[in-house]
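USER: For my understanding, would you kindly supply a protein sequence with its structure tokens?

ASSISTANT:
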Amino acid sequence: MIDRELFPDPLSLDPFPYESVAGVTCEVLRPPGEVRGNVVALHGILSDSRSYRGFMRPFTSRGWAVYAVNYPHHGPDYCSRNIRGLRANDCLEAARAVVREVGDAIVIGKSFGGLMAQALAHEPDVRATVLLASSPPPGIRYTPKWREALPFLVRLGPRTLMQLLTQRTFLFSYEFCRRYIYNAAESDEQARAWHGSNPESVWLVWDQVRYRIPVFPERREAPMLVTVGSDDPGLPVNLQLQTANLWGAEFHEFPGHSHMLTLEPGWERICLQLLQWLDTRVPAVPAKPVAVKTPSSSPDSLASGGEELRVVG
């Protein structure tokens, strides 16, 4: 029986308190007692800090303070005009600022956020890195055969393709998301997740495709876990195995899951397995105090608000 107070429906949760950490707007939740350490959670494109709300209470119950980052112009600061020029490096520098401010951080990154986490893995303030269905880093050329890619491009649709090629923002169609991103979720959850999306900067796609974000596997010292859903059609198992091999990281596949590992049915088990991995890989170190303030731009947004792992490489 799942404790719904600890594991609430992530799509129904109100925001946790927003705080400005190193000038970056984060949803923040701290444990009631001693803080074991800090977790910095990085979201994917077409998303924001809400994608981690389900994880926040379970993590704080184990003593972790959670900082769910919003990249510039995302979350309560969303601005369709300003987001047009947003580059991947802008997101990386915002994430880096939070990691350095909180110190001794566990960095969790999902999809595009996983690429950001890889780019930070060598930082001295990073104690461990967890990748959830991560975008591939430079050094891994994910080039599917045209026979395999053509249905994907057709599903993307002419409108989205034109947005990616000729405009500065884009939004995946509901049909595309239902097929390739939310395919392991129930239909009502698919609709709720899609309606919560906002247009995104096209540069965040092109900066990934062109491998504009450098990573430094040879400089990593902290533990790393690479995870993937067995049914993820966009960033599949073989791609994540290559990522794990590049980093010499531990690897875990979640059977029956797809891309939205923090929202799909069974996300509670994933959350618990990540906590179990942290318990065995990361010693407890009291977290240092973090200077934060409530963002002036969003005063109305405040709310009171395992299995065996393989080592690859």
